[in-house]
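Now for one record:
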Amino acid sequence: MMLFVLGIGSSIAKEDWPAKQVELINPFGAGGAADVQARKLAEIISKDLGQPLVVRNVTGAGGAIAITRYIGPSRMAIP
């Protein structure tokens, strides 16, 4: 499972998007198969976007830390 921070197919897409680097959050450790695949994907997509796609390996808690980084800690609160 990789959390991919790209809104591909969005009906609200802008012509100049993205205006800055895009982050791909990988909930697995560096050096593994998922990391290698994420970096290859980032290399290919960054050419199409014209912006760097940066792979961030965020491990721990069975992927919960990566999800929290993606959606933000305030949205993870349990009522």
About this structure: The helical segments are 33-49, 64-71. The beta strands are 3-4, 22-26, 53-57. The CA atoms of residues 18 and 24 lie 13 Å apart. The first strand starts at residue 3 and ends at 4.
